[in-house]
Amino acid sequence: MRRLVTVSLAFLVSILAGYAAAAGHAYVGVKTCTPCHKSEKQGKAQPIWQASEHAKAFSTLKTPEAQKVAEKAGVKGAASEAPQCLKCHVTGAGAPAADLKPTFVKEDGVQCETCHGPGSDYKAMSVMKDKAKAVAAGLILPSVSDGSAEKLCKTCHNPQSPTFKSFNFKESWQKIAHPVPKA
Questions:
Q1: Contact 45, 112 (CB under 8 A)
Q2: Is the pTM of this model over 0.70?
Q3: Where are the alpha helices (DSSP H) in the chain?
C-alpha cells in the first residue's frame, strides 16, 4: 500500500511539474532585451551588462583554471557542462528545453533574465510600457531597499561557491546597477 501511495504521489508531482513548466514563462535571451535597453534613456542596461563579469560567466567555465577549480570541487567532466557550475554561470540553467526560446543563447552567461525573470511574456513593448502589466507578466524588479536584490545576488555569491572569498553587495551593486533615469 505504501508503495502504491509513493508511486501515485511521484506520478502526481511529475504531472504538476510538467503543467507548471508549460504554464510558465520562457527565457528569450539578452539579444531580445538589447534593442530597447542599450540607450541612455533606458539606463544603458545592455552596455553595463556587456562590460560586466556576468556577460563572461559561461566563457569563464571553459578556462583551464575553471576546470581545475571544478575538479577540486569534485565535478566530473567539463565545468562548462556541469549542472553545479552552470546554475550560477548560465541564466536558465536547468530549465526545460521548451522554456528556452531560439533567441536564448547559454553562452551569453548570466543575462538579464537571471534577475528580471524569463521574459517571453513581458518582452513586448506594449507590455513593457506599463510597469504593472509587465510585473503581472513575470517581470521581476529586484530592490536594494527591500533586500531582494542582495538576496538574489547571494544565491550564487556565497560560501557554497568554490571560488568564494567575500561578497560586498553595495560595492558589487554599483558595478551592475542600471536605473532608468527619471523622465
A1: yes
A2: yes
A3: 2-23, 30-33, 45-50, 57-60, 64-72, 83-89, 112-116, 125-128, 131-136, 148-153, 169-176
Cell of 178: 542600471
3-class DSSP state of 9: helix
Could you tell me the three cell numbers for 41? 534613456
Is the Cβ–Cβ distance between 25 and 91 less than 8 Å? no
With 0-12 / 13-18 / 19 or more C-beta atoms within 10 angstroms meaning exposed / middle / buried, residue 139 is buried
Amino acid at 73: A
pLDDT in tens, 99-137: 999 999 999 999 999 999 999 999 999 999 999 999 999
* C-alpha cell recorded at residue 160: 557554497
